[in-house]
Design goal:
By secondary structure, the chain is mainly alpha-helical. It has one domain. It is 69% helix and 4% strand. The chain is built from six helices and four strands, in the order ββββαααααα. The strands form two sheets. The protein has a two-stranded antiparallel sheet. A two-stranded antiparallel sheet has the order 2-3. A hairpin with a 2-residue loop joins strand 2 and strand 3. It is globular. It starts with 11 loop residues before the first strand and ends with a helix.
Length: 243
């Protein structure tokens, strides 16, 4: 059986270099372009046809998705600050969701299965929350390392713990999405390979499990986009309100 991790390898499709740096176009780059094109195309299709008072099917689905994300932003960031961060949050949600769903298409590539991609997202969000915190509160932002109600004698102990906890946020954010997408696709590959190599009498069993897990993977694609987005809202809300 072929190595199940072979699917996650990146191979250059167009070799390019710039000042000694390899900027070749590979499957991951194409997958991100397709994800952006799909999201942009769906919204442009609604805009081109005109935003109707009585929405059609596509407009209804997109409006429900936007309201879903807006409620999330208002709940965890606050209604006053929501308009400022809503465009970023909704873009993040739709892009990750599109990347996850495109990876479900046979022959495509799951870009969110690359730790460098999810790590870049998580690292950018972490730096952004620090920038928001210091720009809004100044040095008072450092009080986030001291939970309210902690006795003064415990402050020297709590500060390192809270600091490590804060540093762990981007790591857990990146690894969670990467691990879930990688594990699910690996299991699908193994089961499908078993069904192809097994005899006709027993081959239907792994194939049946493949169909079931494929349905679960479809749900996980939505769930992981939701979790990544809601944790981003929580982290932004924490630095704004100093929870």
């Amino acid at each position: 059986m072929e190595n199940p991790l072979h699917h996650f390898e990146l191979h250059p499709l167009v070799h390019l270099s710039l000042m000694g740096f390899d900027i070749s176009i590979n499957e991951g780059v194409v997958a991100m372009w397709v994800a952006l094109a799909v999201v942009f195309g769906l919204f442009m299709l609604v805009v081109k046809n005109g935003v109707r008072l009585i929405p059609g099917k596509l407009q209804s689905v997109l409006e429900m998705a936007l309201e879903f994300v807006r409620d999330m932003v208002e709940e965890f960031i606050g209604k006053e600050e929501a308009p400022k961060y809503f465009p970023f949050i909704v873009t993040l949600f739709f892009f990750i969701l599109a990347c996850n769903l495109i990876g479900m298409i046979p022959g495509s590539y799951t870009i969110t299965s690359q730790l460098v991609v999810t790590g870049t997202f998580a690292g950018f969000i972490f730096v952004m929350t620090l920038f928001i915190g210091f720009s809004k509160h100044g040095l008072k932002f450092l009080s986030i390392l001291v939970p309210p109600g902690v006795p003064k004698v415990m402050i020297p102990v709590m500060i390192p713990i809270e600091f490590i906890s804060m540093l762990a946020r981007p790591i857990s954010l990146a690894v969670r999405l990467f691990a879930n997408m990688t594990a699910g696709h690996t299991i699908l590959f193994v089961l499908f390979s078993l069904s192809m190599s097994a005899s006709l009498m027993v081959g239907w069993m792994p194939f049946g499990f493949t169909v079931i897990i494929n349905g679960l993977e479809l749900a996980i694609a939505f769930i992981q986009a939701y979790i990544f987005t809601i944790l981003t809202c929580v982290y932004i809300g924490d630095v704004i309100h100093l929870h």
